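Methods — Computational structure assignment.
A single polypeptide chain was analysed. Its primary sequence is given first, followed by the predicted tertiary structure written as structure tokens.
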Amino acid sequence: MFAPFLLTTFAPILGFMDKLKQRWGIESNWALTAIFIVFAINGSFAAWVARPVTNLLGLSPDTMTPWLYYPLRILLIFPIYQTTLPLVGWLFGQFKFFWEFEKKFLSRLGLSFLFKKAN
């Protein structure tokens, strides 16, 4: 009785994970799990690091309108996140994946000049 429930619940998730592994060129479930963990840790880490930086800059929701504070905080979190993503990925043995991920992501934002090779 419990087995059909598990099968119908987790089969779509496993199919989605297989598609991600194929799309990202990942071989093992461990690598995929490590990548998910890196995304989670790095998001929390970037938000955590942004707090003292905003305090250092004198930005606070008490001193300015939240309509301005939170967009500024998000703009501050973005470069922190992008900078630390390959570093946290390296800690989990996934530096190559995250370095390629960063290059692709930033080139889509028009920042591909940052990764051009010098001739």
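Note: The mean pLDDT is 85.
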